[in-house]
Design a protein that fits this description.
Shape: globular
Radius of gyration: 22 Å
Largest sheet: 9 strands, mixed
Structural class: alpha/beta
Strand order of the largest sheet: 1-2-3-5-4-6-7-8-9
Number of strands: 9
């Protein structure tokens, strides 16, 4: 009886909130706000080539801070990474950063692909624009049998454009078994890395969707594919909801849905998974809800801080490279695989090299962008943003959800359909976690190619 009551109460509440909050939703027309400093005169629409060129004094200052860091408290015995990054591991990483990491070489690698900046709604937005090439590095546009498809790829936090370095060549190289290849546009989120941050409140994930729509318009793309994970997944889903006429297809490695109805079904699925068409062999991926909530509580303390007091945590990390490193690196351990918390090395180098991880941290350090990056949480979860209810607007464009087994939150396909009305591909990946493009570039690339092939076949290969 108690179990039945425990089930019926949330069901009743969910039905109430569903019928009192979902039916009146209307997709808004968001204003194209100027998020930058107010300037007299017309803002330039020029697309300017950009090269990362960090002054040597910035690197010297970094090394000096690393060399003069304070001693850390010894870790608890047998705690591994369950309390966060232990000081022994941290010291090893920081010594490598100080003595062996070569920024000159790493900067050259980040400059390998063409980069640009352009002013969108008052902000200079940084992006890679990588056109396809063949093995001889020659342009392939003269091949009339090969379709070049624009694909916007968007990163999240605490990632950056570094996440896509290993997947870029795969997506832009023609293959004999495909009649299409991608032209990639990979922007830095506003406030991240080399993109400007807003100078006034209000720039959340919904507003970034408008900025990136305008970026693609600036680049003369009338229609295009979109792909993202983490915040990138939220942004591209918002783009598909707000501007469906521009999105040919949406590929996400973090499909998610947040409505009263899905909350109810999450609880129902704990007791009756067959109602959600969840195979018994897959049950442990999604349920019970108590396990999912426990994992969320353990892994989302950062979220509450960043959604409420972003400038406080930003100030704490701005002058401390070791603080910035430990704050970010912990996520690349636990979000790649939560089981890595039990390992003395945190499993940090299972999927990444130390140079790659430090490249990502350097993007935050040399641009002093940690504060502006974490503000995205506060802006997206502000009362004004929540009033928009943007996360509940339906996504009707063809959608693919790549479900990596070690993702932080996993959602059954039947529940995702509450928002994604046209899922043409729901693929449970064989391995991988939160940073899909960074961890498993080939797996993710294959899934993107297969999804686009399906959409092209459905539309007659247009």
């Amino acid at each position: 009886m108690k179990k039945a009551i425990a089930l019926l109460v949330p069901v009743a509440l969910g039905v109430f909130f569903y019928y009192n909050s979902e039916n009146d939703l209307k997709v808004p027309t968001l204003p194209e706000t100027n998020w930058g400093p107010k300037k007299d005169g017309k803002v330039s629409t020029e697309i300017r080539p950009f090269t990362i060129d960090v002054p040597s004094k910035v690197i010297e200052d970094l090394k000096n801070r690393l060399a003069n860091r304070r001693s850390y408290v010894e870790p608890l015995e047998d705690a591994a990474w369950t309390y966060g990054v232990p000081s022994k591991s941290l010291n090893t990483i920081l010594d490598y950063w100080k003595d062996k990491y070569n920024w000159t070489e790493r900067q050259a690698l980040l400059n390998k692909y063409p980069q640009f900046k352009t002013n969108i709604q008052g902000l200079d937005i940084h992006f890679y624009h990588v056109r396809p090439t063949n093995i001889q590095e020659e342009r392939i546009y003269e091949n009339k049998n090969l379709k070049v498809l624009p694909l916007l790829m968007v990163h999240g936090w605490p990632g950056s454009i570094v996440e896509f370095q290993k997947i870029i060549p795969t997506l832009t190289t023609p293959s004999a078994d495909r009649d299409f290849v991608f032209e990639l546009i990979i922007p830095s989120l506003p406030g991240y890395g080399f993109s400007d941050g807003a100078v006034r409140p209000g720039l959340g994930a919904a507003q970034i969707a408008v900025i990136f729509k305008n970026l693609m318009q600036r680049l003369n793309f009338k229609t295009y594919y979109v792909q993202g994970g983490d915040w990138g997944a939220v942004v591209v889903a918002n783009m598909a909801a707000l501007f469906p006429e521009k999105i040919i297809g949406l590929h996400s490695n973090m499909c998610s849905v947040l409505t009263p109805k899905t909350l109810v079904w999450t609880i129902v699925g704990t007791y009756f998974p067959f109602l959600l068409n969840v195979d018994s062999a897959q049950y442990d991926k999604y349920f019970p809800v108590s396990t999912a909530l426990s994992n969320l509580i353990e892994e989302t303390g950062y979220f509450h801080i960043q959604a409420t007091k972003p400038d406080t945590i930003g100030a704490a990390l701005t002058s401390s490279p070791d603080g910035l490193a430990v704050y970010i690196l912990e996520k690349f351990s636990t979000w790649t695989n939560k089981a890595y918390r039990q390992r003395n090395d945190g499993g940090l180098l299972e999927k990444f090299s130390l140079d790659e991880l430090l490249d990502n941290i350097m993007v935050y350090w040399v641009t002093n962008s940690i504060t502006t990056s974490v503000r995205l949480y506060a802006e997206t979860f502000s009362s004004a943003s929540r009033t928009l209810k943007i996360e509940r607007f339906p996504v009707k464009v063809p959608t693919a959800c790549a479900v990596f087994p070690n993702e932080i939150v996993l959602t059954p396909e039947s529940m995702l359909k509450d928002r994604y009305a046209n899922i043409v591909k729901y693929n449970s990946m064989e391995r991988g976690g939160h940073f899909a493009a960074f961890e498993e570039p080939q797996l993710l690339a294959n899934d993107i190619f297969n999804f686009v092939k399906i959409t092209r076949n459905n539309k007659g290969s247009t």
